[in-house]
Design goal:
Blueprint (H helix, E strand, L loop, with lengths): L10 H36 L9 H14 L4 H32 L9 H16 L7 H30 L3 H5 L3 H27 L3 H23 L3 H9 L3 H9 L15 H33 L7 H24 L1
């Protein structure tokens, strides 16, 4: 990406920071992949690998320590592994506290409270919430929470973020344009989520997820045509104002940061293609794939309870995504 202007240009630090963050994050993940799969491959060749410990908790606390025992200066590598996990935990705590305190400070109810006080309260809540993990059954609780959080809550958050960005943002402005806009957008929205939920549950539990994906897109393409017919506007206007409602404006808000000084109002040649790709991916593609993955995980947990845990532990696990969904609904309704 080309940067423009001098070091006094306020646009340049934004572009430079975005490049540094993206490249650093991807490079770290790429290098970490070598560490993970070389370790897994080595243990498999030695017959020391349990297939259930190639990701998540098992990888960090079972597979890596097993590999370290096979290395020279194993105590040194064990110390480095412990420090790495400790620093990753601190880093995650910073991210969680900063993100949560920022959202709380932006609300009208808690916006006047000192940010340091809000961060302190969040740290205390986190400390109290972590105490159960120190009990004798703490590792079981940790394993259950990790499984249900990764398989359900993270996927659910992705779906809800896509919903808020693609199906909630700018909706009121679009429906206010005309009655035809309102009917067309509502038909497009209800048909998408209605078809998705219906087809996902039926085809995943019937072990026909691939057919379900194909069927969904075929039926939804027909519904999109119906939305265009209801709108009674030219195709370009329907595409901009209804089909890409919400994500179009956000997409251009992202791409315009790369425009050269003095040409901030001129759309660069590649921006429409980027907005199309970004908007379709966020609004239509990602929620569909995430929903199929989440329901497939649900089907697997119903047929074969995770690690054979009893109903009580499974209830604790399923409470996590349920609480997350309720918090989203409450925040949407009252904040």
């Amino acid at each position: 990406m080309t940067s423009y202007g001098s070091y006094n240009d306020p646009k340049k630090p934004i572009i430079a920071d975005s490049i540094i963050i993206s490249v650093s994050n991807c490079s770290f993940s790429f290098i970490a992949g070598f560490a993970v799969w070389t370790t897994v491959g080595y243990l498999k060749s030695k017959g020391l690998l349990d297939k259930s410990n190639v990701a998540g908790v098992g990888l960090a606390f079972i597979t890596y320590p097993t590999a370290i025992d096979e290395m020279m200066l194993s105590n040194l590598w064990a110390l480095l592994l412990g420090l790495t996990l400790f620093m990753l935990g601190i880093d995650s705590s910073f991210s969680a506290i900063e993100a949560t305190s920022t959202v709380i400070c932006d609300t009208a109810m808690a916006g006047k409270a000192p940010r340091m006080f809000i961060a302190f309260v969040l740290c205390v809540i986190g400390f109290l919430g972590s105490l159960p993990f120190c009990a004798n059954w703490g590792f079981i609780l940790f394993d259950v929470v990790d499984h249900y959080m990764c398989n359900y809550l993270l996927l659910l958050i992705g779906i809800l973020q896509a919903f808020g960005c693609g199906w909630f943002f700018d909706v009121q402005d679009c429906m206010a344009k005309s009655e035809a806009h309102k009917k067309s957008l509502l038909f497009l929205s209800y048909s998408y989520w209605g078809l998705l939920l219906l087809i996902v549950f039926i085809t995943v539990f019937a072990n026909e997820a691939v057919i379900g994906m194909i069927l969904f897109w075929v039926l939804y393409a027909m519904c999109a045509g119906g939305s265009f017919f209801i709108s009674k506007v030219p195709f370009k206007q329907w595409y901009d104002e209804i089909l890409m409602c919400g994500v179009r404006r956000i997409g251009y808000a992202c791409s315009q940061m790369t425009r050269p000084p003095g040409k901030e109002q001129e759309v660069m040649w590649w921006e429409p293609a980027f907005v199309f790709y970004w908007g379709v991916t966020v609004k239509y593609v990602n929620p569909m794939f995430l929903m199929f993955i989440m329901i497939a995980a649900l089907k697997k947990d119903i047929e074969e309870p995770y690690e054979g845990y009893g109903p009580g532990w499974r209830a604790v696990g399923f409470t996590i995504p349920i609480v997350g969904f309720v918090m989203f609904i409450v925040a949407t309704a009252f904040c």
